[in-house]
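EI: anyone free to look at a 172-residue chain?
SC: sure, send it
EI:
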Amino acid sequence: MKGMLIAATAAAVVAAPVQAACWKSDEASAASVRELQSMLMVAALRCQVSGHPIMNDYNQFVQVNRGAISSMNDRIKLHFIHAFGPVGGQRAYDSFTTSMANGYGAAASGADVCGEADSLAREGAAMNGSVDGLMLLAERQGLVAKLPEGLCAGAARTDYALAGGAQETVKR
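SC: here you go
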């Protein structure tokens, strides 16, 4: 009987879904940088197809900021891995980033829009790997990642629009 109880308890623990954790400030900031990169990636692809090539400037943006982008992606992956384990976390990360990019798929790709995206990619490249600079650009564009579990209570999203780059606390 005791063996059956242990087996039933173990099965229930394995079958129980892992509850995803709320997002900490640094994770939310990382998601905003990823939002910027995703928006520019999709814009570069859409603009290329519509005859407004900006791929060279997008590629320069990625090349110059590769370390910062990779670091931010690692923070996002760790968030999901802590919540869902290695395999489930990778799947959740993939779903999160795919959904993020898909959100830009239907956007316009005319000359004006592509010109703005190209300008943003060049400005992003000028940040030369600065995470703070990339967060500033994301915020200035109004890019706020949709965090599935929301910010943790008392967590702050950096709001560089405030005087002096002070942080704004988000309350839930």
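EI: Confidence is low (pLDDT under 50) at residues 4-19, 159-172.
SC: 👍
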